[in-house]
Amino acid sequence: MKKIVFLTGTRADFGKIKPLLQEVEQHADFELYVFVTGMHLQELYGYTLIEIQRCKFTHIHTFENHTHESTMDLTLAKTIEGFSAYCQSLQPDLIVVHGDRVETLAGAIVGSLNNFLVAHIEGGELSGTVDELIRHSVSKLCHLHFVSHAEAAKRLLQMGEANDSIFEIGSPDLDSMFSKHLPSLETVKSYYEIPFDNYAILLFHPVTTEINQMESHAQQLVNALLADSQNYIVVYPNNDMGNQYIFSAYEALRNHPRFKLFPSLRFEYFLQLLQQAEFIIGNSSAGIREAPGYGVSAINIGTRQHNRAAHPCIHNVSYEQEAILSAIKTIPSHTTRQFASQQFGAGRSAQLFMQALTNSAFWQHSAQKQFRDSQ
Predict the structure, then answer these.
(1) Burial of 110 (0-12, 13-18, 19+ CB in 10 A)
(2) Are 148 and 171 in contact (CB under 8 A)?
(3) pLDDT tens digits, residue range 180-208?
(4) According to the model, what pLDDT value does residue 334 have?
(5) What are phi and psi of 300, to 5 degrees?
(6) Could you tell me the sign of the dihedral formed by the alpha carbons of 150, 154, 155, 159, in that order?
(7) Taking the model in full, what pTM does it have?
(8) What contacts 24+ positions apart, CB below 8 Å, involve 58-62?
């Protein structure tokens, strides 16, 4: 049996890769290991290790990578130390990382410098801020690539990656989005004690390259929502540098009758809430990926998702209060639910992922990479 270890550091990346983990766990030829770190182990963000444990995976290993300094470089260093020790003991046949987090970069560094094959999920994407630098760095450190669409594959080829190392499987979260096993809206609202009949969702994260402006950005957003009349389900930001300004601004929403705040939401529960939302607002990838899939309008604020995707559902606005309020007021005039998007796949990512893993040619890839000039 080949040992495959997935690294997860956030509620978001676990929600995306969960269908892949479940397929690997059930396959007789593979042994699944899950390395859990980052936000999953912090009470402030809902201690989402619980959600991973609910899946009853056989091998779950936890590592606390949080530092009091909370800077990305020190978090990276600590994660490398913990994951390296784990991999030296486990000797995996494959490491799988996702996206553009510092934990992702740590996994790629450990694998590439220790001659373990590393696969990257959702490389070749564009985004704003330092996230894009991390994502492309991870791609260059990885040996195998599972991409969401043809444009991402093309960018990897431009970066000198080998064509036979790239597998287009779509975005794995679509497997969950279109699953027949999502909980009902009534179940979700009862579980989280959500009183609203109609609501929007707020998901706003810090932008590390705009740290000096984050306090103003967060305050402008909160002022706009307080001036609005909509009900809002608010999910806490991630643990990137600058999130303290968002938490501080959110104090004005706490105990307000139009706002319900949550450290985290179970991914399948979040999907059901999103599917029925009036719109989603903020700068989360959920507004770029999941919302168009459901035909739900997204108000994308600022630069965090710059160049990520274009779709009739997505309305890009600046950080100013008046621009945000203006966008909110235009949402009812858009009947966008007819524009369900399949630009990131058709919900078959886990199946395509396993097709690659069960092909003997996949395991013939060498840990010795070479730059390939694009034709």
Answers:
(1) buried
(2) yes
(3) 889 999 999 999 999 999 999 999 999 98
(4) 46
(5) -95, 115
(6) positive
(7) 0.89
(8) 58/25, 58/31, 58/32, 59/31, 59/32, 59/33, 59/34, 60/34, 60/36, 61/33, 61/34, 61/35, 61/36, 61/86, 62/36, 62/37
